[in-house]
Amino acid sequence: MSSHIKQRLALEMFWPTFDPFLFCAFHDDRFPKGNGKLGPDASLSGRHIGQDFQGKDGWRMYHGSKVPGFPAHPHRGFETVTIVNEGFVDHADSMGAAGRYGEGDTQWMTAGKGVQHSEMFPLVHDDQPNPLELFQIWLNLPAKNKMVEPHFAMLWNEQTPIVKVPDAAGHEVHIKVVAGAYTSPTGTIAEPVAPPPDSWAADNENDVAIWIIDLDEEASWTLPAASKGLTRALYFFEGDSAQVDGTEVSIREALVLDSDADITMKNTGSKSRFLLLQGRPIGEPVQQHGPFVMNTRQELQQAFYDYQRTQFGGWPWEQSDQTHGLEKRRFARHSAKGEIETP
Questions:
Q1: Distance between CA atoms of 28 and 211, rounded to whole angstroms?
Q2: What residue stretches are annotated with the Pirin N-terminal domain (predicted)?
């Protein structure tokens, strides 16, 4: 193992993360064609409906019964960053906000003092398969921001920088910059849309970076050094083989790196894809139970009490698994009576 790779970890569906990150799920579902009602045109027999995570036939219904996904559920005390590389997500929440996003879009939601939301995966194509690939990343909030007002922002694909960097042999590397500015070797700075105002990522001193790195066949690239004392993890999620800091690494592997070192990456197989999660640790106690992340057990108990009492504003939608119709357009509405935003 190289001197700059501190740890190597195997990846399953739920990936190991490090402060300030709490959780990362990689959803990779090869859904069949749709049935005209946004669900799969396939039998659901043999699936554990309501809790289908087994990956039968290469896809899952998750907590959905007709449409795959996650019907209404609460959160408090952290943020969700949902990056959809392929496919679509239908969002609805207790603030009356709604949206359909995908095909490269990111939704960044600050749960703060409490919100309910649903995340359904509509199968919009009835004449072809509906592949879905997304990351859901949980980013912690510091104690001073645990109880801020809920907020959600759309980082549309069209607004998200993708930097193309040729290596010495002319092979291309693409860096999609979801959070944390990237400075190219020529000095060009790629700055993404700002994260929500109460996010740990909103302060540049915290060096939060969320990048998707694609290396073409035989491409090489150097991940530039950042500040000392950050957590920095590189997740190899697609490809055949690669080298990181001179070490052969395997697909579905996480590498924990020194944050203040340049790290050379080389693709030694077909196109290789990596996710980078980096940030300054918050360094506070974490107490988590299911959808709530607080600092103390007492705060966790209060979160459950508050949810039972208020339902975090209730659920204003007809269905707990709310979807937004057969039309394939992407949109967002940030409140019950807000204007429609489109890419």
A1: 18
A2: 65-139
For residue 167, being part of any structural domain is answered with yes
Instruction: Please tell me the distance from the alpha carbon of residue 145 to that of residue 189, in angstroms, as a whole number.
Output: 29
- Asked if 257 and 236 touch (Cβ cutoff 8 Å), the reply is no
Q: Is residue 307 part of a domain?
A: no
Check whether residue 82 and residue 209 sit in a common domain. Answer: no
Its pTM stands at: 0.96
52-101 tens-digit pLDDT: 999 999 999 999 999 999 999 999 999 999 999 999 999 999 999 999 99
The number of distinct structural domains making up the chain is 2
Comparing CA positions, the residue from 185, 203, 187 lying closest to residue 195 is 203
CB contact at 8 A, 190 and 255: no
Q: How far is it between the farthest Cα atoms of the chain?
A: 62
CATH number for the domain spanning 240: value is 2.60.120.10
The domain containing residue 216 runs over which residues? 161-279
Identify whether residues 172 and 93 lie together within a single domain. no
